[in-house]
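Bug #77: duplicate submission created two jobs. Keeping one. Sequence:
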Amino acid sequence: MKIIFLEAAQNFGGSKRSVIDIAVQLKSLGHEVLVVDFWGANREFNDSVRSKGLELRVLDPRADPLILTKKGFFPRISSITHYFIKRLRYKARFSNLAKHFNPDYVCVNSPKALDILSSSEEYKIDYYARGWALKDTFKDKYLKKKYKPRFVAISEASRHAIFISGNARLSEIKVLKVALGEQEFQIKKPTKNVCFNSESPMRLLHAGTFIESKGQHIAINVAKKLKEQGVDFKLTLAGVVSPGGASENYLAYLKQLVSLLGLEGEVDFLINNHDLADEMLRADVFIYPSYTEGLSRVCLEAMSLGKPIIANPVGGINDFLINGYNGYLPSFNEVDEYVGYVNMYYSNPQLCMEHGERGVEVVNSGYLNKHYRDALRNIYGI
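Kept job's structure:
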């Protein structure tokens, strides 16, 4: 079987990592896989694709992606006009590439990628829904109706959101979550009793793209109340800055907020570092007040390292986070509830470790490569 993954990579977050993981697993099952990117503008994505032994083709090599959501009326109209002209060229180039590769499936995860396909070609189309819900603008609905893709959701929450929005029957929607590794993760027990104090503060970690919907400002307000209560802690906000300006502006706002609240000694930033393994190992608790999540790979990565999670009960978070078992699910963006749960771990480090150990068990029960391969066999009948 031949499969193309068509991407428009702007940053290298969890969804792009998942695409590469899927391609690698399909290749390991003996199938021919090709990754095609619109611009090849994200170096981390390109390097990761090639380092996994996957072939990468680029439709229109550029140093920067074409961003359609620029702020300001005239810059946005200019970028949309520019892209509309380019779109016809992309469509022709992809059609030519597909004729030579002759894929059985073309996999996309955005309306932009879907828009340059051809409904008259012989390949089937899979739409990988990596978010909690799909966009439903008039154009998005038109494209889905025109191309009639099969939907592959990243979580049960996403699957039901697709169904409720009327895009497909529940029985027609497949689910493919994420896989974090080949081997089971081991529970690392501390060599000494843990006690949080001024000499050994509790380390909180938030990791995600610097955009408002990831909720870093909520985490900062949690830090404000923890400091007022005399809790000894450090909060690290780790993430990438996306192209387009909005992400950079939000990061500037967060830094200003930290300064305004006098939290320079408690909150620090780790920017554009894509390898967070060491930071996660140092952390005691992962805090994640995100507004919307298809599944949240970063939460699962923290769980695999034995970290309890405190996160908004949104989307696919509910697939793996069980309140009071391997972490806590505060009411949406309720700062006081976040503070209360942090305090529970702060006053009871043993509970913190127990929830972390249970998180490792959850990852091992459903988020390894063997689970991925089983799901892919089910989806593609292989």
